[in-house]
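Here's what a typical entry looks like (DNA topoisomerase 1):
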Amino acid sequence: MSTLVIVESPTKARTIRNFLPSNYRVEASMGHVRDLPSSADEIPETVKGEKWAQLGVNVDADFEPLYVIPKEKKKVVKQLQDALKEATELVLATDEDREGESISWHLKQILKPKVPIKRMVFHEITQDAIRKALKNCRDIDEQLVHAQETRRILDRLVGYTLSPLLWKKIAWGLSAGRVQSVSVRLLVNRERQRRAFHQATYWDLKALLEKEKSPFDAKLVTLAGTKVATGSDFDETTGQIIVGRNVVVLNEAEALALRERLLDKTWTVSNIEERPVTRKPAPPFTTSTLQQESNRKLHLSARDTMRIAQSLYEQGYITYMRTDSVHLSEQAIAAARNCVEQMYGTQYLSPQPRKYTTKSKGAQEAHEAIRPAGSTFRTPQETGLSGLEFRLYDLIWKRTVATQMADSRQTLITIDLQVEDAGFRSTGKRIDFPGYLRAYVEGSDDPEAAIEDQEVILPPLKVGDHPECKELEAVGHETQPPARYTEASLVKTLESEGIGRPSTYASIISTIIDRGYAQMNGNALIPTFTAFAVTSLLEKHFPDLVDTSFTSQMEQTLDDIATGEAQWLPYLRQFYQGEKGLETQVKERESQIDPAEARTVELENLAAKVRIGKFGPYIEAENGDGVVTASIPKDLTPADLDPEQVETILRQKTEGPEKLGIDPETGEPIFILIGTYGPYVQLGEVSEENKKPKRASLPKGTNQEDVTLEMALGLLALPRNLGIHPETGAKIQAGLGRFGPYIVHDQGKEGKDFRSLKATDNVLTIDLQRALELLAEPKKTRGGVRSKTKTPLRELGNHPSDDEPVNIYEGPYGSYIKHGKTNAAIPEGETVESITLEKALEALAAKKSTKSTTRSKKSTTSSTSSKGTSSATKTTAAKKTTKTTTTKKKTS
């Protein structure tokens, strides 16, 4: 008797194989084996003529989905069919969430097994869990399958019905999505708030006091018995004090005058208050909180977090990573408490086991929180993991262990001081017992350092004491606009509003960025002008689809379908074909949407119009000669576009670039221009003889008006030689690149060693000594991990053409094959352990062939283009140089 077990991935198959008897064969489906058609090519000939075929759902036949096997999955399906022929039993062991249930259902439909079928579920891949799951198999849960299928159909109906409308009314290639569009609206609304924000300025005083040689700070809080204004007292939309607030607002002159008046006066402690507080550890990780904390601590995107967590799960290190539950099993609680006792001592153990319950009704995706797998927890050092896998496991281990630790006991201390009619306050914190903070502090990598940072120790004071004022300074403040969303804060908002599922947030955020609705600036998600246009159209004509409460209710209905409390078919009919259904609304609204209006972005306090064009957003304004248009630089955000910037962009278009001066060496003019990617300086004008004059972007944070001729000359001279490395004899240069200013140690064939400059360094003035200091520091890579010399995961042998090694390495997007400068993905169906040198050589050859074809196509295109434009070039040459410069500038 032989049993075929099917899971989703080769890694998971390899891990499970170790825990099963020899008569069990474990194969991978490589994810979904069937889906709705993604292109016209996938639609079967038998239904190609049907009007619903492109949609992939027959809405007039009870929303019957058209499932197809994608071309790239046919080989996998054939392999599974062949394996099933030799089996006497089939076990479907896909993930335990709705997606996994759906994959099992599709496998059953495709394979049509004639042998007994079992559905095996587990939330961790350990020997005990797998053997227990084998003894407790069940049938496929049809309600879970209906919930997943309904979600898939809903997403297809929204996307395929609204996206074509956006193509017609705004721009080709745009997309709408059930959760995506709501997420984009959140970003747009935050940007609108930033645009409406009015900055306010206020001042206060800060004192450095000393008692018995122990210094401490104090801040002005009252003046003549009235509270002194802080940032929270100002209305963001007016910049004025919120109506009803009785506060004193100090300007600079008043603050300086108050400082002078208080100097050399006697300070008296008027009140001391100590308040004990208890802090409890945070619950163990769910999908959402793991994404948030990983983004804060490790600077990982939601997508990277889920990719690494998936790998840890499939290798058997953690429990299932798609879960809304904070519940820990008795086994997990015992394992965590054992870790606390062994590593920190019994005094750090919580008196009673902590049990967490999930408040969200929809928390049904899995039975447990994300935690280390097994009945005993391996410490991070015991796993043998490295890089980001080690750091993410370390995060999960610490968070889980901390849940069973004692509370942190702290004392908050407030000291009020009086000097004449001014009241000052000093606050401190004493950690009486760190408790769980010994293992885990949110937002910090090093718990011990974080504990020290959290403590603010004040000297022993009593009422009536007269500490000495050592320094007193007036401090100015400016209120700040609402912070843009980061991936972490967007995920938190989506979850709190009940929008989408945490397991889909990574792909949603990636889609928003990939489709041009947002760009990442540092850690912030900034919506584009296109996002503004699409959101405005949907708000005006399809308000329900971008309403958070409406979308949240949809999620609740999907949860109800999963539990059998709601029926999927009536819901789909109402949503799509009802009196206010999506299909009905689109038919009614399409003729009412004016494309010119839809492509226009309305921004407050801006006379010029912003429109979405074929090649991106542009400004349109009237001048004496008619309408002038100019492209908007890609790094200019909707919140930051003001009348002054509009004037600069339009002036450059009509009058040509601003001239900073003359290069003393060449005698050519130096211009400052605004291009697609922001402001830059240019040496000379564009002409027939000088088609590509030298250009240099401004360093990040440099204002256009602050650029001098000297600075421009320095930027145009980059990269600049700093000298020779004393150990290697190789040159060191400073330059400005795509990711900012840098230094590079160029060792020729040995390679180039780059370092980014610190915020305090200046690329135009940095010297050799400082460069050597930076090069001596360990190099940082993505997520802040210190890089090491890469060692291959596996050495396959030497390439027959040049006898150079062919190795397998681990990269940020998974394992890959490397030979010389050529990298190739491991072929589908192969693993690090199974791939042979022969297969690797085929993959490398295919990658080289693809590169050659791409280069050949580019060359042909370039040649054809140059022939076709030769006459146009002659015509252009006869025009004024300034106009030529402006035209070129738009594409820089």
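Confidence is low (pLDDT under 50) at residues 361-366, 781-789, 853-892.

More examples are in the samples folder.
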